[in-house]
Write a structure and sequence with these properties.
Length: 281
Amino acid sequence: MSNIVDITLENFQQVLLEQSKDTLVMVQFWADWCEACKQLSPSLFSIASQFPNNLILARVNCDEQQQIAAQFGVKSLPTVAIMKDGQPIDGFSGVQSEAEILELLNKHLPKEEDAWYASASAFAQEGNWIEAYPLFKRAFEVEQARMEFLFAFAHASIELGKLEDAKTLLDSVLLVNQDSIYQQLVAKLDLASNAAESPEVLKLQAELDADPDSLLLKQQLAVAFSQVNRNEEALELLFEILKSDMNFAEAKKFYLDIIANLPDGDVLAGKYRRKLYTLLY
């Protein structure tokens, strides 16, 4: 397997020092004459096969690599060391069951929600909040106590105009966690809330109040709403138009375009697809 490596003086630095900066390394110290090592090895191989991208099993034959074993201060076999960032962070001696070893490793292996958060952060760096939002949401739902997840989810919510959701998230933050990132997000939410009440939106709302049956004004206001990420209000106006006239101007196109640009799994998308379905069938 590609994540099982025999360690020598030649690759010692690359695997145990360099690669452990990015990937957890489980170092197995063993010898051919060690019966307990032979009992332990199948469990270590099995575990390595379960985490091909997140774990390296580095095997040190202590008879052949005495210098490496001495550097680690190995006094008995089998010994297993867990390494991260070039340093041993955990380990054990003797034979342990696969379940016991997994319990130890789970404290150090990256969790699924961390992978979602990392992927979402990469999308966010590119300004791709549509892709980032569902991943931040999923990570937060698994670990709601982690402030970095909450803040990232709130940020994505603001970027996509889900201002009430963002406000609910930020209102839940305890005083002790209201750091500089929290303050920045509160300020960002205030700016987004003000932008959502743009002069164009206010003007069209006033015109529609004066002429509430105008399908054209409803369409224009829906487009203005969508431009400031007030998507639910936009969809509701467009649905009102479609109930009156399924073929009015570009109402159906705008309706479908807004749904298509919502993040994966967004409840609005499902809700308004079903509403359109009731009109069509």
